[in-house]
Design a protein that fits this description.
Blueprint (H helix, E strand, L loop, with lengths): L8 E5 L4 H11 L7 E4 L5 E4 L8 E5 L5 H16 L4 E6 L19 H11 L4 E5 L15 E5 L2 H10 L5 E5 L5 H11 L3 E3 L2 E5 L2 E4 L10 E9 L3 H12 L4 E9 L5 H8 L4 E4 L11 E4 L2 H12 L4
Parallel strand pairs: 1-4, 4-5, 5-6, 6-7, 8-9, 8-12, 12-13, 13-14, 14-15
Antiparallel strand pairs: 2-3, 10-11
Helix pairs in contact: 1-8
Length: about 300
């Protein structure tokens, strides 16, 4: 691939990721060009590109937390091909349905983590990157003709934890499924780690049994890839307190925070949740401490397009 030039680079986004796209464009020192959108009375959505994209390298930054946001991304990709963009590069900060990457045997459920990702790939982007995937299985939902990348936030997480200036802390995974990732973070930080004993007994319900005594007398940082309802993390925090933890911090990449989860966290005594801006409309406030993934997206774009200034 030839080197791309900043002046030929177009940064677009779906509606959900407009703020993150602008921040990334600012870091790249190029202009963010929001799509022109209009909704008609019958619910149909009009899109137009803000400039001629023919022969230019396009980057689309688009989280897909809803069906509409996914469809908008696919429309933009197809539109880029229609107007003969030189390359179409997609960054998906948050992939909706990402926890549904496997179908349980015998109940014929649709593995939407795979099928939805396959819909993106069928639109034929040249390059697609995802941030902190729940499972890398979705990367294989194409026929090998699309360059994919799993962008991991490890270094940003380590930097954020170091900025907290904690002296006596331990990392905790809310389940064994994420324990290897948490162990990797703990190794880089030079601290101990453990995992909670969790069982899932319904679609959105889990039960956390116990946490190892390594948390006794320490500040606990519970790390996960996402918080949806927060039930298992709140239970993990309670078990850590039972095991002698002195304080609890919650940290996750994707802050979905559905339903009344924010109120439940506050009632549980957890008053600070650290996370990224991959999920739309997450801003720092009394509960959230938000840091940006824009620097990681900038790095991925530079590497993929070999940008020259």
């Amino acid at each position: 691939m030839k080197q791309a030039s900043i002046k030929d680079l177009i940064i677009l986004s779906n509606l959900e990721s407009a703020d993150l796209a602008k921040e990334t464009a600012d870091l790249l020192q190029c202009k963010s060009t929001p799509m022109q959108r209009q909704e008609f009375s019958d619910g149909e959505i009009y899109h137009a590109f803000p400039t001629d994209i023919g022969g230019r390298d396009v980057v689309i930054i688009a989280s897909t937390p809803t069906d509409n946001s996914l469809l908008e991304l696919i429309d933009i990709i197809d539109g880029c091909h229609h107007y003969m963009a030189h390359t179409v590069n997609v960054i998906v900060p948050y992939l909706g349905y990402s926890t549904m990457e496997q179908a349980k045997p015998g109940i014929f459920e649709v593995p939407k983590g795979i099928t939805r990702t396959r819909q993106i790939f069928r639109a034929r982007p040249h390059f697609t990157a995802f941030i902190d995937l729940h499972s890398e299985a979705v990367l294989n939902a194409h026929c090998g003709n699309i360059h994919t990348l799993h962008i991991q936030t490890d270094e940003l997480i380590i930097s954020k934890i170091n900025s907290l200036n904690l002296e006596n802390f331990v990392l905790v995974s809310p389940d064994y499924g994420r324990s290897k990732w948490v162990a990797r973070l703990a190794g880089k930080l030079g601290v101990a780690h453990t995992a909670a004993d969790k069982d899932r007994f319904a679609k959105d319900k889990t039960m956390v049994g116990q946490v190892a005594s390594v948390v006794s007398g320490k500040t606990v940082i519970i790390c996960d890839d996402m918080i949806r309802t927060g039930g298992s993390i709140i239970q993990t925090a309670e078990r850590c307190k039972d095991a002698g933890a002195t304080d609890t911090i919650v940290m996750a990449t994707h802050l979905v925070m559905s339903g009344d989860s924010q109120e439940r966290f506050i009632k549980s005594g957890i008053t600070k949740i650290i996370g990224t801006n991959t999920y739309p409309n997450r801003k720092s406030d009394l509960l959230f401490d938000i840091y940006s993934v824009a620097p990681l997206i900038k790095q991925a774009i530079h590497k993929q397009l070999r940008i020259r200034t």
